[in-house]
Design a protein that fits this description.
602 residues; alpha+beta; 2 domains; six-stranded mixed sheet; 18 helices; 16 strands; 43% helix; elongated; transmembrane helix; transmembrane
Length: 602
Amino acid sequence: MADTDYTELILAIVALIISILAFVIAILQALQQYFASATGYSSCREAVIGKWAQFSHRRLLWKEFRIEVQFETPVLFVSRPENTRGPLGNDEDFPDEDRKIIRLDGSHTNLKYTSSTEEFDEQQKKKNKQQAVHTADNENASWCHLLMTVYQMEKDSRAWQKELMGYHPPFEPSPPHSLVVCMQRKRRVWDSMPQGLTKPYATTTISHLVEIAAMLGIHWKNFDLNNDRYRAQGNGFVLYGSYVDNLGIGFIFQKQGPTVFRQDRVIPNEHIKKLCFGLVPTILYREKLVDIDDRKDYATLQLGGYAAIADTLAEFGCDNNTINHFRKTPESSRHSHLFPAVAFEILGMIGEIFHIKDTAFRMLPNPTPYYWEPNTFSLSTLTSNIASLLKEARRVDPLTSEGDQISQLLDFYNRSTEKTEKPPNGSIKTEISATTPADSIAHLRAGVELCDRYLDEVDIGMVFQVVRVHIQEVLAILNEKSSLDELAGSGLGNGGQKSTITISDIDSASVDEKHHLLAQIYCAAIRNSVIHTVYKQRSQYSPKTSAEMADSETSVKRDINQIWCTLIFRMLYWLQLHNFHKKDIQIDKGDAYDSRIPVYIL
């Protein structure tokens, strides 16, 4: 009897143990299924989204008896640093500082959201030591690399500028920038992730992405809004874009080579945003478009393609022969002499100053469909030749006088050459040599500002006319539609001798002669033709009588001459003050300007 009781006790204990084990296993299975409901949490760890993993967490949903994964990703945009209005709301709407706009300006506070390249490289070294085979790191979301690149761009470029300019009073230690990449934190849940995506994504718009790419020195090679095919490349980066099912237009940002953020950094001026789309703000304004506050409506030019340039020339009132040069294929019409003439001459003559005072950055997004190759010509040499010819012309030209605008321009040039090594004729130099880079940049900017002060005081209608006729004459010469003997007119400023120089002479000339020949064409043939044509046009449509026009002929021609010379000097100084990357050209993306089409960086 005792043995039976003992056996039953053992069986009961074993049964209890088995029951407890089964219960524990059941509990563990339930917990495993419960925690497994936290789908996507492994995709929100630091190895995938970097420092943004600190904003990821799991939240218990008691009603559904499961775990929800919450995480945060950036919404990127480009604006002025002082802007307080973001895509997710205004700063004053958020009592929490973390919800407000974050500016990627290269400051130490940015390191809360992104690593520096030094930190990232150190992490990669540690990771590679643990791996037997080194493979490309594609675990990170590409927008993490984008944030790190923007931070490094700001940090490195500001440090380079400070060293180059040698900031000291009265210069500020960091001159004001009016363009910066900003972001706001957007909270998301993994349940709302589109099917097929395995990593969190950042959000921006197509226009802001184009602007960010320009700031990083990335140039577009393909931009097809109709078929959603995009590719940009430059400065060691590549950006691919295409349509992603259940999401929209997705982009991948990758590094493929060495990167430098120094002199090639784009000028941090908010107005360069238009240049990214082939639009150019100008110093000219439309007289007929003045609002009730009497504010000037400054004209914006379209230079992003041949058709756009044709439309701009039509808006200027150019004749059909001139416009048709851009309606044809590029092979059937010539647009260049030493450099692409029309687009870059318009830029230099009336384009807004994008350079920020007391800064060293000169690079701009190229708003034209032409390559800018300053190594093949010298603007400083051309400036020297034009100044010399105008000095000679001033001795015999009745349209100049002591103390006029042309005298001021030549005096300004002479003052600069007193402390500047004069470039030899034909020397291929892209900028004026001064004692320091800061002096050189300040000199160029002062030259542009000298021209702007004069243009701001003269008849804006005459400025439009001079620009229009100048373009017509340049294109006529480039395509040899008329004899330069006819264009030279009565030979004003060239001693009564008619010019016989043609564009073919420049093509066949040596590098030592090209600049001087072009300067001769400009100062003789084009200048005289512009004066004659503009005066004739104003005489025909003037309300004055013929006798009154005859009395004022010298005065009107003098004004035209001064405006033309001012525009030429402004063009030369402006094109030296600013620069364009030699591999950057504009491809048509005008429809994307200010577009709020959302795109996603994967």
